[in-house]
């Protein structure tokens, strides 16, 4: 039981990490001009992505 719980927890963490890395890569692929058009700040977008994925 404990082992299965540990495996489930690790799978969840790996999935969240993969999602966060995908979002960061997408944010980093935006040009500075794109960010200006969006009126967005890259670091704020990464912080929001972290909050979205990890709920912190």
Plain-language structure description:
The chain has 56 residues and is an all-alpha fold. Helix content is 84%, strand content 0%. It contains 3 helices and no strands. It has helices at 2-28, 32-38, 42-54. The longest helix has 27 residues, at 2-28. It is elongated and about 50 Å long.
Average pLDDT, all residues:
96
Number of helices: 3
Helix content: over 70%
* Shape call: elongated
Q: State the total count of DSSP E strands.
A: 0
Main β-sheet description? none
Rg measurement, Å: 15 Å
In terms of DSSP E residues, the strand content is: under 5%
The helix/strand class is mainly alpha
Distance between the termini: 28 Å
Poorly predicted tracts of residues: none
Supply the key terms:
single chain, 56 residues, mainly alpha, 3 helices, 84% helix, elongated
Task: Summarize the helices and strands and which ones pair or pack.
Blueprint: H1 2-28, H2 32-38, H3 42-54
Quick summary:
By secondary structure, the chain is an all-alpha fold.
């Amino acid at each position: 039981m404990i082992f299965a719980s540990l495996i489930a927890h690790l799978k969840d963490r790996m999935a969240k990490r993969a999602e966060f890395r995908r979002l960061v890569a997408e944010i980093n692929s935006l040009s500075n001009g794109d960010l200006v058009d969006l009126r967005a700040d890259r670091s704020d977008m990464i912080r929001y992505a972290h909050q979205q994925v990890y709920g912190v």
